[in-house]
Structures are given as C-alpha cells and as structure tokens.
Amino acid sequence: MNALKKLFGGNTRQFGMIFALVALIVFFQIFTEGRTLTPGNVINLFNGNSYILILAIGMVLVIIAGHIDLSVGSVAAVVGVTVALAIRDWGIPWYMGILLGLALGALIGAWQGFWTAYVGIPAFIVTLAGMLLFRGFNQFVGKSNTIPVPNDFQYIGSGYLPEVGPNTGFNNLTLLIGLAAVAFVVIGEVRARRTAKALGAEVNEAWVMVTRLVLVCGAILYATYLFATGRPGTSFPIPGLILAVLVLIYGFISAKTVIGRHIYAVGGNRHAAELSGVQSKKVNFMVMMNMSILAGLAGMIFVGRSTASGPFDGVGWELDAIAAVFIGGAAVTGGVGTVIGSIVGGLVMAVLNNGLQLLGVGADLTQIIKGLVLLAAVAFDVYNKTQGKKSIIGMMMKNFGRRSEELTPDETTSTKEVISKEA
Amino acid sequence: MTTPTTRKDPVILEMRSITKEFPGVKALSDVNLRVKAGEVHAICGENGAGKSTLMKVLSGVYPYGSYSGDIVYQAEVQQFKDIRASEHAGIVIIHQELALIPELSITENIFLGNEPTKRGVIDWAEARRRSLELLARVGLREDPDTPIKEIGVGKQQLVEIAKALNKSVKLLILDEPTAALNESDSQHLLDLISGLRSKGITSIMISHKLNEIEQIADSITIIRDGKSIETLDVKGDGVDEDRIIKGMVGRTLESRFPEHTPKIGEVFFEVKGWTVGHPQIQDRLVCKGSNFYVRRGEIVGFAGLMGAGRTELARSVFGHSYGRFISGQVFKNGKEIRMHNVRQAIDAGLGYVTEDRKTLGLNLLDDIKTTTVSANLRAVSKNFVVDTDKEFTVAEEYRKSLRTKTPSVEEGVAKLSGGNQQKVVLAKWMFTDPELLILDEPTRGIDVGAKYEIYGIIQRLANQGKGVIVISSELPELLGLSDRIYTIFEGSITGVLNKDEASQESLMKLMTSNRKSA
C-alpha cells in the first residue's frame, strides 16, 4: 500500500493523470474486444486528433496568460483555403505553401494580438469577432467550394515515416524514434535526480525511480511496437511527428525559458508581473500570435489529411482544444496549466471519442458523454480544492514542470481570496 | 437556540480550549478567550499566530465540527454552521479586505442579502430611510445613493459598520480595521468604536497598531503560535506598548529599531520638477513639480497622508508605471537618465517594493524560488533558458540570509505569513542589485518581530552604500528608520526634515499644510 502510494501518489504524482488515460484505454481495449490497441486504430487516432492537440498546445499558453481564443477553427480554415488556392492557382510548391500558411497565421495572430494586447479588448471578444470574420473570409476566398491539394502537400496530413534500411519486419525510423525517446527519458530522469541531490532537494528512493522508468519506457516501447508494425506503408504518422516536436519545444519554452516564465507571471498576476519588469503587452501579443500560427498549421495538416480544403473545416475545434486544456488542469483565471497536461487532456477526449465510435455509440451519445466527462473532471478538481484537499489534477500535474498551488486559508490569505483563486 | 438572554451576564463570550487543525498545521491549540459584555477586547499576536483563524472559528467561517472546543455566547453553547448562523446570533465580523461591492450604492450594500421587502418587492424608500439613520449613527455624511467606489476606504469601513448595525449586532469583530486608513480616519473609527461601546455593543478588535490598542482597548488577549498566552486588563495592569510586545514575541525587544550608524555618501540620485497627471482624470495632477534627492547609504522617508501622492510619485519615477508623465528629469550620478518602462527602471538600478503585496507585489500562484528570481531572470538564465539549479541556489541563499521561515523554497508564496512574504519580495528586489530601492509601506500588516528584522535588512542595504526610500503611514517607523524625511501633501513636497529635527508633530504639520518648502 505504502509502496503504491510512493509510486503513484505521494511524491510521484505525475503519473496520475496518465493513469486516468491508461484506465480509459484498458476499458475500451476490453469492451471493444481488442480493437482499440491495434496498429491501425492507434495510427488513426493520432492522425485524426493531431490537429486538435496542436491547437491545445497554443491554447494552453493563451489560457495560462489569462485569455481564451475562440477563433482557432476559423483561422485554421482560412489558412487552409488560402494555401490550397495558392498551390492550385499560383502553382507554388508545397513547402512554399506551408510557409505562406504560417505567415498568414502570424499575420492573423498579429491582428488579434494587437486588439487584445495593445487596445485592451478582452480576448474573448476579439476572437469571437475573429471567429466570424475568418469563417467569412474562408468562404469568401474559397467561394464556399472544396479546393483539392496535391499529393505532396497531403504528406503533412496523412504521410508516414518512410521505410529505410534493412528489412527488420518493423518500420526502422519509427523504431529509432522510440528508442531515442526511451534514452531521452532515462537520461533526463537520472540527471534531474543527480542535480536535485547535489542541491540538497528531496529525492525518491532508487526503486521508485526505476519502477517509474520501467513503466514509462514500457509504454513508449509498446507504442513504438504498435506504430512500427502497422499495415505496410503505414508507420508513425507525420502529423504525430510534428506534434511530438511541438510538444517538446513548447513544453521546454513554457517550463524553462524566460518567455515561459513571463507567460505564467502575466496570467498569475499581471500587475505584479508588470512591476517586476515584465512587458505584459508584448507577452499577450506573442501568446495570441503564436496561437494563430499554430491554428494555421493545424488547418494545413487537416487539409492535407482530408486532401482538400472546404468551407466548414475547423468548425468547433476551438471547443475541443479548450476542453483538452481544462481537463489537463488549467485554471480559468489564468496562471495555471501545462503543455503536457493539455496533451493528456486532449488524448483523454480523443480516446473517448475513438472508443465510443468503435463500440458503435452514436454521435449524439458521444457528445453527451464527452460533455459529462469535461464537467466531471473539472468538478472533481474544484470539489477537492474546496474540501481543502489537494487539487487532483493540480497534483497530478505537479511534476510536469509547473505546479498549481492549492491555497490553504491562513492568516495572510483571506477567505475571499482563497475562494476567488479556486473559482 | 440563539434566543438572547435577558439576564445581564458580564461575560458575553467565552471560547474554551479551541483547537483547529489544517492539514499538517495546528493553527490553534487550546485557545481560551473571555470577552466581557460591553468592552473593547483587543487580540494581539504576530502574523500567523492564529488571530484571524480564531475569529473565523467564532463567526462560523469554519463551521461547528471543524474545530474542537466550545463557544459559549450569551451563556449558551453555540454551534454555528455558517456565517449566517453567527450573524443571526448578533456576531458580525468585518474583514480586513472589505466585503463591499464597488458598483452598488451605499444603501444597496448595507442591505445586501437583507433587503427590506414589501410583498416580495424591495422597498427602496424604507431602505433609504433606514440607511440614512444608520449613516447618522456611524457619523458618515454621504448621500446613501453614492456608489461605494466613489468613497474612500475610511468611509467604506464606516459603511461596513453601518451594515453590521443593521443586523442588530451585539458582538462586532473587526479584523485590522485601521490597516488601510490614514490617521484622521483611524481616529474617527476608534471614536466610533468607543461610541458603540457606550451603547452596549461589545467589540473584538484585531490590530497591529499597538498605540491604537492602548488607546481604546479595555482588555487584551495575546495569542502566540496558536496558543492564548495571557489576557491583560488595560486599566488594572497598567499595560503599555512594550508590555504588549513582550507578550507577543515572548521576550522584550530592547528597541523597536536595530542599532544603526548611517554612513552617508554623496548625492547620486535626483529627481527635478517631477509632474505627473492622473491616469484617468484629465486635468488632475498627482505630482506637482516634485524635487528630491537621495544620497548613497541614506534612508530617506516619504511621509504623507493616504492619497497625498507618495505612491504615485514613487511609481511614476519607477519607469512611468503610474499616471501620465508630463515633465521632469531624473539624474543618476549627475547624468540625466530616462526610464519609460519598468524594465528600463530596473536596468537603471531602481527597485520598487509595492505597497500592496497581494495585488501588486506577488503572484500568489508562484513558489518562493520563482518569485525570488522573477525581476532578474536574466541573471539565472542563459540564451533565454532559465537555469533552474541556479534559481534554486539563489533562492536558498536569500532564504538563509533573510531568515525566511519556510520548509523549502519550493513552497508556494501564498502559504507564507505576511512577514515572510515580504521577505521574499525583498529578496526578489535585492537580487536585482538595485542602487536605489523604494519601499512602499514595507511593514504593513506585518508583526512586530518581523518588522524588526525587515528594518535590519533595510539598514543593511543602506550600509552597502545603496539609497533607500521608505514610504510609510506610520510616523514612528519613519522617525526610527530614516535619516531624512520628505513630507508630501496633495502631490507637492512640502518640506524635508533631518532625523534630528523631525518629530511626529513637525511632520504632521507639514503633511497637512499647503505651504511650499523653503
């Protein structure tokens, strides 16, 4: 019992949220009679959700900074259609198309960032306007038609790692990536432990770390196995690869860099941040701009996957992305949240979607269940906080870089503040 | 259960061996409190001693069952399950942070949650009539239709009391009622509390201002480390400030200020003709052509009443972080410098510790180590990547040198007591290595022991050859700490006095007069 607590609770809470995900996967694996964890389904799951997860990365930064972005679906759509048209009508190569899309995303982001950061209009309003505006642009530019994209552009949305090297029965590149990930995790953990020890901070017993590493590496290797043994021609999907790279980059930025610190500072207490020399307008501008760039990227990946741009691309994406972020432990009031948490939150929704589909549950029921899961996840967290216990999601996310502090009433924190922080 | 007893009981409230635990902390252990009917009973103790927790137990914020011990009120054991229950029994608590709604009028606030109705519809005429009555009782001459946001903090405090009177209060609890008030508003409030006493309303008052306690309280209960230490009878025991301090800290402080021999060097920082407009109101000036200078190793005090423009002056100099800049020059080491934002001010060697820790000074979601480095991330980062090991080491150094009481620098700042939070804020600014550090109300809401330590830190900074500006509403603090004191009145600097020529009287005269300094 104590051992379990040490491994999964206590000081090693970081696996908690992932366990919710694992439990969900196991549940569906059993009830779909093994159709969940097949190479085909897992690849499909990643392909079909990578663009939402990419949006969640941008969205968590926006939400940490204390804003929200409702326009991401429309931005994705307008970027998608513009790129598709540019490739078809101007004949630019696919990579120029991607650059154009990112530039357009940046331009749109600058527009929204300008109104939010420098004029001071709440992001909710700015992006609500943007949602209408860019949906309109999408249909105006594309004349509400479907515009196909060439095969080489489709690669970013539906491509796979190529087959190289000797025939091992696996996809060699996927295998290499999996092994690299394992090495990365092991080396990272060992080094973190060593420096923590050197600085005199608390560390766990060796067996805790070893067991944890075995579990994580096991999961990575199993995923690698699934991806590497799919139908011939399939392997680790390109959108998944883009996602993984983005998670690494943004996870690092948010936890370890100066700009990351500034985003948390502005979201946590803008006045205090400003009086510490943080240029909050710049931070807000960059966060909003970054979101639109990622929305543009997500839009292009979606167009690549669906082989054409359409007038209703990206409808409702903003809500999926926001849901992922909140399930992942972010706070509506800003200052709290993690990139990894949001990805896990997004995966919970994705697995749920996928599993229910496999079970033949209709779209109506699926929506109902997803809505309840979102509400339950956040309600559970809020309930735990008001009971003076630790926030479940917060403590699960504790070691994912940033922590969300629970506030206990004390002499210097009035009840009102505690309540407002919890809200 | 809460029917008032008609029998005259000299003891209105008795709290018997109250123990309250939070996960991992025993906030109160075996606390006893006896309050006589019709007295003003002060509760003193350092921050974190458990005063507010005790009052929250009493008023039902922490419901019956979440603590152990008995509350005997009006000769009956009470089991309040929420604030409503305690209010019903006539116990009303006024929190340090006022619970008024800025957008609503005085009347609407007074009757909030308690609206007089006629057939289910709010009877505003009746409400207005009654609020006029209540305002007269608390001595507030304001139109009851005035929105709360348009009256000052002092008057808001009076509205809170009017609200309590409306609930036919028998026991009024005031948590740091004068913390945010200037001298004259404080005096008015204290007079009102004694007025209520003569009408038979018992008050419990938590305050750090010992002179006020000495002035108004009939008895004092001292709480230290979650335990009730003693109850003093002010008249009978001949209690003075030193006696209270002794009880609070458990030892006599020989002096409220550490020994310090200033080593004052040449003038290195000078502000000339500093004029700043109000951020919203077009023609209003918050600083009117202010001139001042600071010498190396000097502690300069800024005295002025609330709203005189002390904070406005400091913040506008600190990278134009307040108001509309109109004119003025800043010189450092004889050369003019320009600071258009806080970043530039920090780079120019300025630091500013804000007046209000919780809304302006700290991100309460942060932990100690991130807060410590937050104003100087550059020093712990390389190519925009934060070196978390270095961050930890820096925070650890300051924790040791400032003697911050915390289990670890990874603890959240929200969990620290006021004094320790202030130490973290000081660490944050010390880490930027400023040449001039401006401290705005550095000891507000901080207990006596921690104050002494903070004075020591300020003096240490001055000894290192830094200039320090201290803005404070507490004149004894300025007199004890500063080498030279400027007085500010309505946006103008009205005078400057050296330590040896300043007294509370001479400062107060300059703080309330319009005459320009010679």
Instruction: Look at the structure and give the CATH class of chain A.
Output: Mainly Alpha
Number of self-contained structural domains of chain B: 3
Instruction: Give the uncertain stretches of chain A in residue-range form.
Output: 8-14, 395-423
Number of strands of chain A: 2
User: Which structural category fits the helices and strands of chain B?
Assistant: alpha/beta
Q: What is the CATH class name of the largest domain in chain B?
A: Alpha Beta
Report the sheet-strand fraction of chain B: 25-35%
Number of helices of chain A: 18
Trace the largest sheet of chain B across and list its strands: 6-9-10-3-11-12
The whole-number mean of residue pLDDT values of chain A reads: 84
The DSSP helix count of chain B reads 18
What overall form of chain A do the CA principal axes indicate?
A: globular
Order of the strands making up the biggest sheet of chain A: 1-2
Strand tally of chain B is 24
What's the layout of helices and strands?
The complex is a heterodimer of chains A (about 425) and B (about 525).
Chain A: H1 2-8, H2 16-31, H3 39-64, H4 72-90, H5 94-119, H6 123-141, E1 147-148, H7 151-158, H8 172-199, H9 206-228, H10 238-256, H11 258-268, H12 270-274, H13 280-306, E2 308-309, H14 317-327, H15 339-358, H16 363-386, H17 392-396, H18 415-422
Antiparallel strand pairs in A: 1-2
Helix pairs in contact in A: 2-15, 3-9, 3-10, 3-13, 3-14, 3-15, 4-5, 4-6, 4-13, 5-6, 5-13, 7-13, 8-9, 10-11, 11-13, 14-15, 15-16
Chain B: E1 11-22, E2 25-36, E3 40-44, H1 51-58, E4 68-73, E5 76-78, H2 83-88, E6 91-94, H3 106-110, E7 117-118, E8 121-122, H4 124-138, H5 153-166, E9 171-175, H6 183-198, E10 202-206, H7 210-216, E11 219-224, E12 227-233, H8 234-237, H9 241-249, E13 267-277, E14 285-295, E15 299-304, H10 310-317, E16 324-332, E17 335-337, H11 342-347, E18 350-353, H12 357-361, H13 368-373, E19 381-382, E20 385-386, H14 388-402, H15 418-430, E21 436-440, H16 448-463, E22 467-471, H17 475-481, E23 484-489, E24 492-498, H18 504-511
Helix pairs in contact in B: 4-5
